[in-house]
Amino acid sequence: MTTAFDPIVLGGKRLTSRVVMAPMTRSRAFGPGAEPTELMATYYAQRASAGLLVTEGIQPSPVGQGYPDTPGLHTPGQVRAWRTVTDAVHREGGAIFAQLMHTGRIGHPGLLPEGLAPVAPSPVAAKGQVYTHQGPKEFVTPEELTEAEIRQTIADFADAARNAIEAGFDGVELHGANGYLIHQFLAPNTNLRTDAWGAGTEGRIRFAVEVVTAVVEAIGAHRVGLRISPGNAYNDITEDDPTEVYAALLDRLATLDLAYLHLMEGPDRSLTARLRKAWPGTFVLNPFTYPDATGPDALKLVEDGSADMVAYGALFLANPDLPARLAAGGPFNTPDKATFYGGDHRGYTDYPTLTA
Questions:
Q1: Catalytic residue positions?
Q2: 51 and 17 Cβ atoms separated by less than 8 Å
Q3: Which end of the chain has fewer CB atoms at under 10 Å, N or C?
């Protein structure tokens, strides 16, 4: 029987276990350069005993930033700063993927360089607010991406992936979940386009397919993972029946031989089983345990074949040595609410960033 503590080869690299630290927004890249800090190097190195670390969301371009103090991978300074993080993780024997996250309509002009505004497949504002240094702000109506801008955004993802490898990352995870830009193209309430980037199932999956393909061509399929969250209503997404779109997406991507597919699960475990069956490669599962943090019971998902690897979020914040504690059956520190829901956002603790 395979367990979560058995090694696994991912993209040609042997990982020490199948326990993954899920990406979690921390907002610690203080300063105008959106560059990682020494605190971030310490944070990731402390958790390097995970089989795989996936970073917080990293914007691939200036307009891709949706939250304050999140890091980028689009300038030479950011690449140099991330090298201090990857070096620290590798010294501890860990493996680390950079999560590339373009937030699309989730954001505010006040978070962007002058003259830029949030963009999206269609000019549909999200309900709710985003935190800024001036306090919470209502989401604005985003600018609809033109054909040329879509092409440039795809190129931005590929360039950021190249920068990630230059910065020492073992690979990248493309964030196609949680209501951010790739997810916005997939969802019917955020993609109202009638052109080839939105019409029908093929139109809705096109952006995701082309981003993944461009990044694969840039750095190799063995270094590329994709995260999805079918049916997840986070960030005002509506996908009442996601099966057709995600089945088509996985069918188009199955031949690329990606490093992994990372599912942020919703309450429908039957959909998880269908996607698991449809995906021919490594399947990473961030199981649905809301409102609780994922606990030791999730290890059984590897043992029963539901997943090849299992991802933990909040429990990794409170327990940097989580794999050892899981193997021993505890004890576990309990994440407090401020940490669980984004307490690093300078006191604004009602902002959900459990596994952004």
A1: 180
A2: yes
A3: N
